Amino acid sequence: MALHSRIEPVDIAHEMRQSFLDYAMSVIVSRALPDVRDGLKPVQRRILYDMLEEGLTPDKPYRKSATIVGTVLARYHPHGDAAVYETLVRMAQPFSYRYPLVDGQGNFGSVDGDSAAAMRYTEARLSPLALELLRDIHKDTVDFRDNFDASRKEPVVLPARFPNLIVNGSQGIAVGMATNIPPHNLGEAIDAVLLLMERPDASLAEILERLPGPDFPTGGVILGREGIRKAYETGRGTIRIRAQAEIEGLSGGRSRIVFTEIPYQVNKAKVVERIAELVRDKVLDGVTDVRDESSKGKIRVVVEVRKGADPRVILNQIYRHTAFQTSFGIIFLALVDGRPEILGIRELLLHYIAHQREVVRRRTAHDLEKAEARLHIVEGLMRAVDLVDVLVHRYGPIRSARDRKEARANLCAPTFVLEGRTYEMGFTEAQADAILDMRLEQLTGLSIEKLADEESSLRRTISDLRAILESPARLDEVVRKELLDVREKFADERRTRILDEDGSFEATDLIADEPFVVTLSEGGYLRRTDPSTYRAQRRGGKGVLGVRVREDVIVHVVHANAHDTLLFFTNRGRVYPLLVHEIPEQGRTTRGSHLANFLPLAPEERVTALLPYRASEPGDLVFATRLGFVKRTPAEEFRSLRRSGLVALSLERGDELVGVRKLGTGQEDVLLVTQGGMAIRFPVRDVREMGRQARGVRGIRLKAGDFVVALENVRDGDELLFATELGYGKRTPAAEFRLQSRGGQGIRAVSRQAGSLVAAVVVRENDDLLLVTRQGQVIRMPVREVPVLGRTARGVRLVRLEEGDALQTLARIPAED
């Protein structure tokens, strides 16, 4: 019966809900989240307070960490010793805390993920800055509460004379919520506090001028400011951090990448291991060595790059594939009056300012109370000095008393009668005790003078303290001065740089901007080839086999860099873009990949012209068609091309595009060359700018059966190289082609004996030529081996052709590549 009377029916759903909420609130309030006022979790606060109570100040010897952990467990934190020691260690790590609060001696871990030594081996004491968190704690600046067994009192919050929550940041995972506050520069944080004290309505832009963003203990680079702005405004945001790197040149044309700072909370050893894996797996091509040359307190990770490899591309690949570029999710979550809240930077700092005002107010009230109590004692002592002859008389209030209690009562009595004369007493009990404790030396003239000076000083102090309590402006002045004192004593230079770029990678950032030869066959097969696979030969050679073909002929060959966009112009007047590095790189004897894999061409649509193009380069595009029409269109109209293509120009029936060139300064002349060996040169200004839909104007009047095969933009100092289908070629100065009016028949550019012209291109002395025949033979030769001859000359043999073969096309390889 008694047992049944103790059983109470409980709804299990309600009990589970209530128990879970109790547990969740315990984790949130008592373990995982920092207080908005001092930026500390309970365990951190208890460790610092216990170390102060134990006298472990910076001017005292270190003490074993095991002793500190033991006293914290015994007095304030009845949980696991590992959690307490881990917290102690973290507060001592200069790579975890921007401004460490514990001064550790011994092995406290490293950025390579090494654990700290056992607590019996390490020693610790408070850092100088930690004293600023604890300063005036015994002056009634904060509330105290009972510890877990009510045997001691512990502070609810620390006075925190600097904004520790954002200075050292905080990380914690509670139940259903998490906080991730990055560290900031102490000087900048105090500047932001001072701004909001002066103008609480300061704009976010003004706050960002004082507090531009996080400042991590390991340095690094923050990419972009939008994530910072969003976090400061809403309490949530994401920033990208990358390692600080420098590219250094070495002898022999080699180079190396040196990392001197790493992102916050990144394990350096694991990243070095990851880089080595990427090199082994051929993801990083061009790295010859990876080593960690870091010493104590100094980061130095070296990645050596082989000769010819682009260190900037390798650096971008390291950022892309390792934690040397990482994201940091900011969540400004803290306890406000015991409740978790997500705060913007303004609200967070205003809570801290309110705390400081309360701390200074309470300290001032405490100091005032103490000063008034001391003044009361001094006033009693000074009266006692005036009555010393009465007090020390054998029948006076003291010597006539039987014990201290009676003597105190005599002094506290309103009057005392001695030898028939009445003397005023009326001392308070505190004054009476002070008089009874007086030593004879205090009756000397010097001591009496000191009492008078002390009374005067106390009155001034009391007046000043009362003025602070009565004037919010005076109180703010005290807060401001003390913050500035902390700033002057502890502030240092910012370690983390902030860049405007957001750190996102384009595909070209991860690919070296190397030169390539791009070929397109009549059958639509496309490939990208390293020019070095075609070794240079002397003029008149047979060349090497460029591609194995069966009834397929290479009709277009261009030289382009990997970062270029290749524009494909078709017989329908449309243009399609394709990045050069997206074209598969293949050997010189392979067929390539079909164009249909890259571009959505219509069934009867074929490519008639190719142009390497970079949108960042200014200038217009000049077009020439097979039937002799020319057009000039601003390059801006081709900067935002869709993969599905756009109309580039209108074409008459039977006409097609044969050439496109990019104008540089706009002072060049246009040169059109026909298959029959005619050429016309006219000023580019004769071709007005037109939109993409326009057909253009007549550039050359063609003879029956003739058609345009080449377009170039030239100046008098240029040299033109002409090549014919019979394999002949020559160089001719552009100056030999006089300016004519647009629309004429032109003048002869090559002898009829040389055969039909297939190409004309502007060249320089140190360039190379790449010639392709219909049967797929390819020869690379220096331009300087082609002689300079007059307009009507036939030229010399460039390539020895097999029977039935003919020169199909050519491309210039610039000297710089």
Automatic annotation (TrEMBL):
<dbReference type="InterPro" id="IPR013757">
    <property type="entry name" value="Topo_IIA_A_a_sf"/>
</dbReference>
<dbReference type="InterPro" id="IPR005743">
    <property type="entry name" value="GyrA"/>
</dbReference>
<dbReference type="GO" id="GO:0006261">
    <property type="term" value="P:DNA-templated DNA replication"/>
</dbReference>
<keyword id="KW-0067">ATP-binding</keyword>
<keyword id="KW-0547">Nucleotide-binding</keyword>
<dbReference type="GO" id="GO:0003677">
    <property type="term" value="F:DNA binding"/>
</dbReference>
<feature type="domain" description="Topo IIA-type catalytic">
    <location>
        <begin position="33"/>
        <end position="510"/>
    </location>
</feature>
<dbReference type="InterPro" id="IPR002205">
    <property type="entry name" value="Topo_IIA_dom_A"/>
</dbReference>
<dbReference type="InterPro" id="IPR050220">
    <property type="entry name" value="Type_II_DNA_Topoisomerases"/>
</dbReference>
<feature type="short sequence motif" description="GyrA-box">
    <location>
        <begin position="537"/>
        <end position="543"/>
    </location>
</feature>
<dbReference type="InterPro" id="IPR035516">
    <property type="entry name" value="Gyrase/topoIV_suA_C"/>
</dbReference>
<protein>
    <recommendedName>
        <fullName>DNA gyrase subunit A</fullName>
        <ecNumber>5.6.2.2</ecNumber>
    </recommendedName>
</protein>
<comment type="subunit">
    <text>Heterotetramer, composed of two GyrA and two GyrB chains. In the heterotetramer, GyrA contains the active site tyrosine that forms a transient covalent intermediate with DNA, while GyrB binds cofactors and catalyzes ATP hydrolysis.</text>
</comment>
<dbReference type="GO" id="GO:0005737">
    <property type="term" value="C:cytoplasm"/>
</dbReference>
<keyword id="KW-0413">Isomerase</keyword>
<comment type="function">
    <text>A type II topoisomerase that negatively supercoils closed circular double-stranded (ds) DNA in an ATP-dependent manner to modulate DNA topology and maintain chromosomes in an underwound state. Negative supercoiling favors strand separation, and DNA replication, transcription, recombination and repair, all of which involve strand separation. Also able to catalyze the interconversion of other topological isomers of dsDNA rings, including catenanes and knotted rings. Type II topoisomerases break and join 2 DNA strands simultaneously in an ATP-dependent manner.</text>
</comment>
<dbReference type="InterPro" id="IPR013760">
    <property type="entry name" value="Topo_IIA-like_dom_sf"/>
</dbReference>
<comment type="similarity">
    <text>Belongs to the type II topoisomerase GyrA/ParC subunit family.</text>
</comment>
<keyword id="KW-0238">DNA-binding</keyword>
<dbReference type="Pfam" id="PF00521">
    <property type="entry name" value="DNA_topoisoIV"/>
</dbReference>
<dbReference type="InterPro" id="IPR013758">
    <property type="entry name" value="Topo_IIA_A/C_ab"/>
</dbReference>
<dbReference type="GO" id="GO:0009330">
    <property type="term" value="C:DNA topoisomerase type II (double strand cut, ATP-hydrolyzing) complex"/>
</dbReference>
<dbReference type="GO" id="GO:0034335">
    <property type="term" value="F:DNA negative supercoiling activity"/>
</dbReference>
<dbReference type="Pfam" id="PF03989">
    <property type="entry name" value="DNA_gyraseA_C"/>
</dbReference>
<keyword id="KW-0963">Cytoplasm</keyword>
<dbReference type="GO" id="GO:0005694">
    <property type="term" value="C:chromosome"/>
</dbReference>
<feature type="active site" description="O-(5'-phospho-DNA)-tyrosine intermediate">
    <location>
        <position position="121"/>
    </location>
</feature>
<dbReference type="GO" id="GO:0006265">
    <property type="term" value="P:DNA topological change"/>
</dbReference>
<dbReference type="GO" id="GO:0005524">
    <property type="term" value="F:ATP binding"/>
</dbReference>
<dbReference type="InterPro" id="IPR006691">
    <property type="entry name" value="GyrA/parC_rep"/>
</dbReference>
<keyword id="KW-0799">Topoisomerase</keyword>
